[in-house]
Amino acid sequence: xxxxxxxxGWLDPLREMERMRQExxxxxxxxxxxxxxxxxxxxxxxxxxxxxxxxQVPGVRPDDLEITVHENTLTLKGRxxxxxxxxxxxxAYHRQERSYGSFAxxxxxxxxxxxxxxxxxxxxxxxxxxxxxPEADKPRRxxxxxx
Amino acid sequence: xxxQTAATPAQTQPETTRKVPLRSPVxxxxxxxxxxxxxxxxxxxxxNDVEIAVDNRVLTVTGRSSAKAPPxxxxxxxxxxxxxxxxxxxxxxxxxxxxxxxxxxxxxxRLTVPKAAPEPARRIAVRRA
Lengths: 147, 129
What we know:
The complex is a heterodimer.
Chain A: H1 13-35, E1 42-47, E2 50-56, E3 65-70, E4 73-80, E5 92-96, E6 101-108, E7 119-123, E8 126-132
Antiparallel strand pairs in A: 1-2, 2-8, 3-4, 4-6, 7-8
Chain B: E1 22-23, E2 27-31, E3 35-41, E4 45-55, E5 58-65, E6 74-78, E7 84-90, E8 101-105, E9 108-114
Parallel strand pairs in B: 1-7
Antiparallel strand pairs in B: 2-3, 3-9, 4-5, 5-7, 8-9
């Protein structure tokens, strides 16, 4: 059991740890915007039939997304529009943490992609692009024949 | 109007037993003539997986991610992790938390909290003892 004396946080290690955790959260919370990497953040998955690229694009309308595939590059372009209702003259912001505007990212893939077979889905702000590898390009096992 | 992050919700709610991290969603808050609007980014969270609670003027929003890894694939390059989201705000008396409207679209949750009608002035009659 810990006795908490006001003003002497070190007597209560649990409380002190909680305070430090909050301090760290606050510090990282403030640093994150400057450390922020390219938008949108992407995950790349490799499977037997090709790669799958997923990206977090919350608030981007699917119509505002443009996906292009050329040989072995995937380009994702788009625009995130600010809320149209917030454009009214008597609107006051209390907090603005989201960012808006255009973005473009290009990813080099490890193989050429057949643009006809690319498939894209958009669910709850996550874009999933499936890029199958052409049949002719897949690795093949070569049988060694006996002489 | 005063919105501030309330005491960490983790202190008042049971810990989640999920494998994904719990994050605070990036939020815009703006005020119009007749409402307060909150826009919270929760990518991967379906409208059915959002829980909104108001207790003692503290508004707590929790969203559970339903994003799944593509089947049969391994992650080779990662820039984000799927996460659950939770954030709490303390609402001022100027809004009416009983009439909150919530809409989720494209990974963004929009909460509209209408402003409360001003309390009518009352006259108190003095009784004779």
